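Reopening closed ticket. The problem is back. First fold of the pair:
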Amino acid sequence: MQARVKWIEEASFLAVSGSGHAVLMDGPPDAGGRNLGPRPMEMLLMGTAGCTAFDVVHILKKSRQEVTNCEVSIEAERAEAEPKVFTRLHFHFIVSGRQLKPEQVARAINLSAEKYCSASIMLGKTATISHDFEIVELS
């Protein structure tokens, strides 16, 4: 796996993944940016949410659960002093489907958190991580 980041101007950088996808990252106006894209630490949170959502959907499908949607919101706190690592993360899952079993959803989230999601497991080295979920029943 690889990625490349190139400085564009001021606080703007273009990140290109090894698979060829590009994302513009930018800083806030008070740091010389123009707010044209997410901050690098926001990208880290978005990537972590994507990693765990992928796991949860995959695990639920393998468990023959009829999952139709999964959304993950992350709330994060960072250290006051440099390096401003994440110190607390809370993941809130909204899982939609038909006749989803709460114990299966909880199991999928726990497996992701403890075994499969590389991103959240890495962040767990500096942050306290918690999870909760809600199920939206579709008719």
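Second fold of the pair, where the issue appears:
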Amino acid sequence: MKHGLILGKFYPPHKGHLHLVREAKKQCEDLTVLVCSLNQEIIPGALRFEWMKELLPNQNINVIWVKDENPQFPEDHPHFWQIWKQTIESHSPYPIHSLFTSENYGDPLASVLGCKHIPIDIGRNKIPISATKIRESPLKYWEYIPEPIRPYFVKKIVLTGSESVGKTTLAKKLAELFQTNWIPEFARDYLEKKPSPMEESDFLPIAKGHLLSEVETTKTSNGLLFLDTDLLTTKVYLERYYNSEIPWLTERALGLRYDASLFLDIDIPWERDKLRDLGEERGEMKIRFLKAMEDAKRDYFLVKGNFLEREKLAIEFVNQIKDQPINPLSFTKEQINLRMIE
């Protein structure tokens, strides 16, 4: 039986990795993929291991998680190659016939393992990407991130503020300009369809509906996602109308993290509609929202001026967010669990 081996960090997995696996599988009956991780890395090894299992469902591909805290470069340890030989052989289910890599370490490692090295696209000419590039600028290299794991790399930007400050208008415009999705205020659609007036019992289904909408819309977003309000807003209105609290909502309103927040000021005229009734409390509501942002430990970018000025400020800000590296919080168990809808 021809048994091939691939090893790497897959930090994160990208389409170059998938190309390597496809080409390797053509040349061996069974293939083992070792996902090697270190505790210090900001995308947990457990998550990368799950990603690789999802991306490689072939029953003849063994995806194995390697947790050994091994040295990363030959100069790090005098017995570097022997340490890795022991790790690889102890994790490999079969004797290794061929080692497949897109790296220069392939030849010396194959020599240590006593197997053949088959290089695949060493020059990265076919798929010019690296995991480092994706970590440093995921949106710039969006096309190289496999579709199933893209939701973890979407940068979410929340628009927050009092009634009638242009959140919906701006969210729509930004989504159009950046060719991606936006999430409407779930409460508005929910209450417009409700035959009876708003009640305190409406707030939990509104909160869950909004969060579910965020999770689902993230799956098809093009690197960015704009949220017309979020659960922090729901919490503020629950306190304002009913002086009440829902633990499920409070935990998520204060705990969920986003890549950025745009806070829209009250310096444009208030416009009445059937769901707005706090026109005389705009100053007070602004204070409530700012206090909520402080409680949730969220930084924000203040957007003010007329509609064109707001749009210009927001676009400049979003362009800065686009260039930022991956957000470590996006990969934590806490944030993943907070976005689960029971």
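Update: turned out to be a display glitch only; the data is intact. The beta strands are 3-8, 30-36, 61-66, 98-101, 116-119, 155-160, 181-183, 224-228, 260-264, 301-303. The mean pLDDT is 93. Please close again.
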